[in-house]
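Posting this for the archive.
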Amino acid sequence: MRRLLLTVRTFAAACLPLAVAAGCVAGCVAGDAAPVNAADAYYSRDGVPIASSARDHWVMELDTLFSLLLSLDTAAQRVNGSQKNIEAAQQQFRAVRLAFKRVEFAIAYYEPSTTSALNGAALPRVEHQEGPEVVFPPEGLQVIEEWLFTGADTARRTALVNEIRSAQALVRRARTATAVQTVTDNRVWDAAALEVARVSTLGIVGFDSPLAQHSLPEAAAALQGIRTTLAGYASALSANNRPAWRTLDSAFVNAISALRTDHTFTDFDRLQFIVAFASPLSRAVQQARSALALTPPDERRAFSSIAGTIFDAAAIDAQGFANPMTANDTPEQVALGRHLFFERRLAGDQSQSCSSCHDPAQAFTDGRARAVSRVAAHAGNTRNTPTIINAGLQHGYFADQRTSYLEDQVEAVLNSPNEMHSNSNEAATRLRSDSAYLRMFTDAFKGTGDTIVNSLNMRRSIAAYVRSLNAINSRADQALRGDQSALSPQEKRGFNLFAGKAKCATCHFLPLFSGAVPPTYRTSDVEVLGVPSRPVIRNGRIDPDSGRFRITHARPHLFAFKTPGLRNVALTAPYMHNGVYRTLEEVVDFYNRGGGKGIGIVLENQTLPFDSLQLSQSERRDVVAFLHALTDTVGTTPPVSPRALSSARR
């Protein structure tokens, strides 16, 4: 939910001759195509890898994109208040977007920083490590979209033309880098799998087409771009596993056709598309890659490279969010971390544990608007206590994201005078006299060369326990994995509103329903919503907590807070960083009104759209019903009783 600031090429025909006999998979299939070094690429003809031909095609697509930007430049200069000229420029912009989408999967994979600049959210970029004044203005296609689809006034035309020319420079940069890129078969297919996930989680929800609402044609173009590239491997697939290419191409055709229906952005059935078209396509990509005997890249990341779809139960790995220096968590470390989580000796006065505020019986929250402070003078500075279920599936901790990893968060909580009023060294010293803990630390860190009770091992163990508290098998998940009977008709409507008209999924991203951005999960968003100090619907006053501004001192971050996860949100009232809203109905009403702006709070840097979502009362009820379907605490907390759920609804 953001306030913005400012024809397919015939690659298949070119590539198929290269692949006519390219059925030589690691030397196993006869033919005149010769395998290249297995670590780089498998398929070639006359010594030219098919992957290299794919790269050459991407360069041609970038040339097309650049040419269309030149035409957009001309069209923008003709905008003079004439509606006809505005519409001509808008149509040219749509052509630019379709060209970008056809090559998105490749440049997002090989040139992510350039792609982010070209197609990122139209918000200022803060580089706070360099100082609070290092703020870069928004740039790229979404800035251009803002101008073209909100009036296209001639007063800003010069700035708009300059932005188009900046986009041209970014495309030139991407072309130059792509032309010399070493491209391998396994990476081509990995990029394809990531793009299907990107379409399923960002494309169809309108993340990067918030005003033009051109998302469905763009999603179709993105899939067509993958299909065209992978067609180069058709003969190889047919030679090695005859059904594989037919299955894959049929999945492409079906998904693209579903996106090219006459449905509008608002009435498109996203749940049906994911279940019936996107997920089968994702699985077909993986099956075809397996048929080609291509090994996925061996690297730790959040979205597993071997998952059938991004919605699979095991698709997201908490270790992909962990500190790269941290070894994989072991069951012994998790068990030790659980003991430490409930250990009162960690506190300075040994009066409370982590579980005192993160109570398993309350979905690991405390049920209060604001956490209780140990220091009376600081009581007004506390924030709402979030659940830690699924906390390992995110980047950045605390509402202001002041720590990057869970291990750092543990230390910050121990040091805080409002919380544990201790530190990990002191706590470790207190535990060293306990023989039971000595044994548990030895078992947990056996083979690491460091088995003693110390600060680092204590923090690592607690972090490992928190990372184990994953619950991603709610009824909503079951529906997204194919069992649509898991949701009631009202909840299905609520999902489609959540991912469509209500724009919730443009900040609370599928499938984690948090601010962690799929499919690469390199970043987590912060947003300026305009949260009031009191639950009013007019004449609101901004809550004085400055949020992330406390950390970066950058003006765009004034009143900015991390986008929280919505899983188990029905159990974690009250809501917002200050606990201002008691019910989900109040929260949805706040968003529907346009956030702070809609209740009289004027913030120049509000990132939530200012205008009302125009949700009817029944639509708001549908969204709330869907949010209840995100409940799942199995394996993490005591069972949730029907009575507790009923109380949460009130």
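The beta strands are 44-45, 48-49, 125-126, 135-136, 526-528, 560-562. The chain has three domains: 11-316, 320-468, 475-649.
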